[in-house]
UniProtKB/TrEMBL annotation:
Identification of the protein by name: ABC transporter family protein
GO molecular-function terms, A-Z: ATP binding; ATP hydrolysis activity
Pfam families: ABC_tran
Top-level lineage group: Bacteria
InterPro entries the record matches: AAA+_ATPase (IPR003593), ABC_transporter-like_ATP-bd (IPR003439), ABC_transporter-like_CS (IPR017871), Molybdenum_import_ModC (IPR050334), P-loop_NTPase (IPR027417)
TM annotation in the entry: none
Domain ABC transporter span(s) in chain numbering: 15-226
Length: 226
């Protein structure tokens, strides 16, 4: 089932004929099996569904961490997997920024070093998302010299989002980034997620349990397992 939201103004980086996502595949994890058929021209889509429906598994397949049994995955027109054509782009070449439920920051590095970790390897050369711009976008400047252990859940998620952007992704995958936060912290973080959505023209796939959260972020909602 899918449910298109009203159009949002995405500016110059908005949807075009090329912005077509195709998630048309079947996967298996132990005894769990899930097939999905999603085609979308919306840049930001959400996957919702009950616990165990397979939302995280679908993100893993997009990220190249789980290989589907068959099918095709295209994000913004870029083919990542096609069993018929023998295409399976390795995970490290998919240019994915992944934000998990828990921020998964390096506890022995401070905020600045966690962010700079994202900006390593090829990402350092002519980055599309520069360090200062990402720090400004996410309001991280006051946190830069702080230790990870002292950050609130919302601050940690902003740093995790910043690190993901600095890795210069072509796709942003968000796996319930607000789920570990209480209501107040969720309300604090949501505007930053909206800024990322509006100011950075990246395709985003957003997994969530919360209809309210999804309505505020995604252009289109797909229910998994219905
Ligand atoms: N490593 C694994 N090996 C075998 N089965 C697994 C593995 N990881 C998850 N599963 C099973 O795959 C199914 C889908 O799990 P998944 O985490 O993708 O669901 P989800 O919709 O993201 O759930 P939640 O909302 O609770 O995070 C579940 O039945 C789960 O038990």
């Amino acid at each position: 089932m899918s449910d298109a939201m009203p159009d949002r103004d995405h500016g110059a980086g908005g949807p075009s004929m090329d912005d077509i996502h195709v998630l048309d595949f079947s996967l298996r994890r132990g005894s769990f099996e899930r097939s999905v058929r999603i085609r979308s021209r919306r840049r930001v889509i959400a996957l919702v569904g009950e616990s165990g429906a397979g939302k995280t598994s679908l993100l893993y397949a997009v990220a190249g961490l789980l290989r589907p049994q068959r099918g095709r995955i295209e994000i913004a027109g870029r083919c990542l997997f096609d069993s018929e054509r023998g295409i399976d782009v390795p995970a490290h070449r998919r240019r994915i920024g992944y934000v998990f439920q828990d921020a998964r920051l390096f506890p022995h590095l401070n905020v600045r070093r966690n962010l700079l970790y994202g900006l390593h390897g090829e990402a350092r050369h002519a980055p599309r998302f520069a360090f200062e711009a990402v720090v400004e976008l996410l309001g991280i400047a006051p946190l830069l010299e702080r230790d990870i252990a002292g950050l609130s859940g919302g601050e940690s998620q902003r740093v995790a989002l910043g690190r993901a952007l600095l890795s210069q992704p072509q796709i942003l995958l968000l796996d319930e980034p607000l789920s570990m936060l209480d209501m107040n912290r969720r309300d604090e973080l949501l505007p930053y997620l909206q800024r990322v959505r509006d100011e950075i023209a990246l395709p985003m796939i957003y997994v969530s349990h919360y209809p309210e959260e999804v309505r505020r972020i995604a252009d289109e909602v797909h229910t998994i397992g219905a």
